[in-house]
Design goal:
The protein is mainly beta. 14% of the residues lie in helices and 35% in strands. The protein contains 2 helices and 8 strands. The strands form 2 sheets. The chain has a 4-stranded antiparallel beta sheet. Strands 2-7-4-5 form a 4-stranded antiparallel beta sheet, with no helix packed on it. It is globular, with a radius of gyration of 14 Å.
Length: 110
């Protein structure tokens, strides 16, 4: 659903240009795990294109999808806010292109 929406929409021109100089870009292939309980998210990912699913494994080992994120969605914001349970996974459903905002740049969003 990407309930967070387009996080860049409300940034003023100056902070946006500063942010663009600080982020790096990465592309993930379909099926690639972006983070997992044993490899937790450390950065905030802003989806440019593609779709990412957030899920956990139930007691039977089956995926339970929590949320879907598309263009403009934020992945990893629970890590940034400190509300990360650590039991979630994120995986690319399609070719996913992202902006990666490292922890030193989170001030642009929070």
């Amino acid at each position: 659903s990407g309930a967070t929406g387009n996080c860049l929409r409300n940034l003023a021109a100056k902070p946006l240009s500063e942010l663009e100089m600080q982020v790096c870009h990465r592309t993930y292939r379909p099926g690639k795990t972006l983070f997992a309980p044993d490899e937790p998210a450390r950065d905030l990912l802003i989806i440019r294109t593609g779709w990412v699913k957030i899920y956990f494994l139930n007691a039977a080992g089956k995926e339970q999808i929590v949320e879907l994120f598309g263009p403009g969605g934020l992945v990893g914001e629970t890590v940034v806010s400190g509300n990360n349970s650590g039991a979630q996974y994120a995986a690319a459903l399609s070719i996913v292109s992202t902006h990666i905002c490292q922890s030193t740049n989170w001030k642009f969003f929070f």
